[in-house]
Amino acid sequence: MKTEIQIDGQSIAVEIKAMKRKSMRLTVTEHGTVDVRVPMRCPRKDLEAFLLQHTGWIKERLAAVFAQREKKQAEFHYLGRLYLVVTDPTVKALTLREHESGGGECRIPASWSHEEFLAHSEQWLRKKARDYFQSRIEFWWPRFADGAHIGFPTLRVKKMRTRWGSLSSRGYINLNMKLMHLPQHLIEMVVVHELCHSHHLHHGRAFYQLMAKHMPDYRAREIELRQIEQGLMY
Fold this sequence. Notes:
Blueprint: E1 2-7, E2 10-19, E3 25-28, E4 34-39, H1 44-53, H2 55-74, E5 75-78, E6 81-87, E7 95-98, E8 104-108, H3 114-140, E9 154-158, E10 165-167, E11 172-176, H4 184-196, H5 205-214, H6 218-228
Parallel strand pairs: 2-4, 6-8, 9-11
Antiparallel strand pairs: 1-2, 3-4, 5-6, 7-8, 10-11
Helix pairs in contact: 3-4
């Protein structure tokens, strides 16, 4: 179900999803849509009161989302490198050109709108992610195969709001496409983290002992990831 709320005289789209849950959950998507998960048969007046109570928070999150969108129009991050987005009438697709000094340019057709850029860059990034993630899983898996409660994991590249990855008991390893914005050593850490779950489904002592065995500096990498993830996870 869809509705709208007014914030500072502006109509904001609200997506309402009734689910089997006890409380309401509120998020703001990267497209500027307010997403509300509500219990089944939630009274309309309770929903309206909930939205009114959180108007200030919604306003702050929308401002952050739109600021991030403006930044995305000018910048493109790929494997830890910053590329400035430049329109180029001579290219027909997204093209990265690296500078010897680091970083480079992300050249896109001059005819693309912002929405077209987002769509094409997502498609480009998803393909790159599938190939890259698969190569890292194949590299690390032999270290985990013995004693694992699953066989060789099946990769799923996803867009996730709150997690970088997950591993299911059925053997699916889900990795967030946004990992491709990060430096390679942080992607490695996430892959190793999820493969550790092939032995331990929890985050207990045994899990972290296995993590330290395969990646002794994982704590430093986790700290680095937390320092940069706020701008990517929303």
